Amino acid sequence: MVNAKQEAIAILKGALNELESQNGSVASGVQKLLRASHMLEEKDIVVWCDIQLGKQDYIDLILYYVKVLNSIKDKNNVLAKEKILATEKFLKDSGLEVGLHIDKDDINVMCNTKIGVWSISRVEDEYTDLVKNKTVDKILRQLEKSLIQPHLSERINHVRRKTHEKALTIYNKYAFTDAIKTNFDFLKEEVDDKLLDLNPELAERLMVAFKSVSSENPEEWSHALTSCRRLIEGLADELFPPDDNQINGRQLGKPQYINRLWAFMDKAIESDSNKALAKSHVDFLGSYLEKTHKLNNKGVHASITKIEAIKTVFHTYLLIADILGYLDKSLVKREAKLNIHTATLDEIESMLNIKRTTAKEIIKLRVEHGTLTPELLATVQGIGSKTVAKSQELFSFDSAE
Questions:
Q1: Which helix or strand (DSSP H or E) is residue 25 part of?
Q2: Could you say which of 315, 334, 353 is where a domain stops?
Q3: Are 306 and 365 in contact (CB under 8 A)?
Q4: With contact defined as beta carbons under 8 Å apart, do 366 and 359 qualify?
Q5: Separation between Cα atoms, residue 40 and residue 174, nearest integer Å
Q6: Alpha helices, DSSP H only, in 41-137?
Q7: Low-confidence residues of the chain, pLDDT below 50?
């Protein structure tokens, strides 16, 4: 299924093709850009498109602004500058920011007295009529053509160029980063959801850290790193609470949260190579967070760059994705499973959520054959493929000692 972002990208491609075609309609290009900008929530471009398409609220504000500018003879005068700034503030409060939603070139081209503040659709229609000379009075039309056509042409070319620039900018912004953003968004959503199930407070802390690195304030980046450190500490408390004992000479007290994550992974990860990789990831992130923690305590915010903050938050997401993956496996790892050969009638009935009579048949089959396999279990009446799969998740089929 095509999502909204992909549809918007397709619309932008259509707008670019329209604008690059010799016979393409500029008004159609603006309308397509407007539609795509709405879908992508590019609000500033939406306003610009609305202006070009003649939205009356914005046109009235522009005319008022031009009227104020025309009433001032010496624009370098202090009082004149104050009046212009006050007018621009009024426009901004009304939803139209000069320099952002419309610039001076836009205003100069739009407010040409020869043609008025027309929408780009009307400008194109008037230009077409002039070129085709659709009038009985050809002499009058020729006069209009000589007076008006250059201004119509200037407006069309101006809007074509500006629309193409804006369409190309947001096309490049979304078309070539879509896959990366989608993949990370998928990872982020998975981690956020699993962490919310485990500990909502920790999940919220991680989401706040992610939000903080989008800021341009260095103190926010510092807060993001602090949040990541506290999150890792909290995760260690959740998975392996502080302990007075030692493992392999490593203390497991409250401050030793990295050691406690090691201890958790020793139990949760069966593969030695995966264990070593996970531990190195924890050590890297832990040492970096400790370093930045010490800098923060000294009030050194300026030494932390935005890219460092972003990398740390991304590393934290990747680390937690690993840990939560090991946590899921630890809940059902083989040595913790009940053995199907020694499980009681009640355990088989409740864990497989089957009728008692069906559970009894399983016990009888176990006694008859002395062992059970998934294939043999499937021969019991009332046991389907889903129940067999469930039995393999919840029970070990290894030979009982």
A1: none
A2: 334
A3: no
A4: no
A5: 9
A6: 43-52, 56-71, 78-93, 104-110, 120-132
A7: 1, 136, 139-140, 300-302, 329-335
